[in-house]
Specification:
Bound molecules: FE2/S2 (inorganic) cluster
Helix content: 25-40%
Largest sheet: 5 strands, mixed
Order of helices and strands: HHEEHEEEHHHH
Strand order of the largest sheet: 2-1-5-3-4
Strand content: 5-15%
Distance between the termini: 63 Å
Shape: globular
Length: 199
């Protein structure tokens, strides 16, 4: 193996042994790569955005996700953590009116953007959004853990014009999993919520 071939073992060795004398092959190249990666990872950026129409002015690590910013920094815990890897939809929020998975969205990419979470969905008078009301009327939840993500996805589904039929709703909502399998009630809620939203 060439001494410049970087393997996981050499990288770990280089990172873990920083500052220690290393015998054997010259690992300075791997140590330099590990050092650069660690410098990059530690980078902080300033960030200004609107969350539920409230200005947020903060400094974030470039690795921080929108999900962590919302839940841990802003205490907006209505947005849920499920898989944390983009497969369950529990963390769905809106950015500039479009649905995104907050666990896969880096906060640092949101300079100047408008983020809406389930807490910001309420009507101007403080009452429930029509889609939230429809979920309650149809009892479209059991444990409720997936519900904030389902509601945010449902509002987006209607806005995107994908609530024309039950089949279309199921397709559009297929990225939001429900471990309690409340799917029939969720589809019924989206159908009625769409009507209430004037779709
Ligand atoms: S927590 Fe983001 S998709 Fe599952
Ligand atoms: S209501 Fe329990 S996971 Fe959906």
């Amino acid at each position: 193996m060439s001494e410049h071939q970087l393997t996981r073992r050499t990288l770990l060795k280089a990172g873990g042994a920083a500052g220690l004398a290393v015998s054997g092959p010259d690992l300075s190249w791997a140590q330099s790569v590990a050092g650069q990666a660690s410098d990059l990872a530690a980078e902080q950026v300033s960030l200004q955005l609107l969350v539920n129409e409230q200005p947020v002015n903060t400094v974030v690590d470039v690795r921080r996700t929108l999900l962590d910013l919302l839940r841990d920094d802003l205490d907006l815990t209505g947005t849920k953590v499920g898989c944390n890897q983009g497969t369950c939809g529990a963390c769905t929020v809106h950015v500039d009116g479009k649905r995104v998975l907050s666990c896969l969205t880096l906060a640092a990419t949101l300079q100047g953007r408008h983020v809406t979470t389930i807490e910001g969905l309420r009507a101007p008078d403080g009452g429930l959004h029509p889609m939230q009301r429809a979920f309650v009327i149809h009892d479209a939840m059991q444990c409720g853990y997936c519900t904030p993500g389902q509601v945010m996805a449902a509002v987006a589904c209607v806005r995107e014009g994908h609530a024309g039929s039950d089949a279309e709703i199921r397709e559009s909502m297929s990225g939001n999993l429900c471990r309690c399998a409340a799917y029939p009630m969720i589809v019924a809620a989206v159908r009625d919520g769409a009507r209430e939203m004037g779709a």
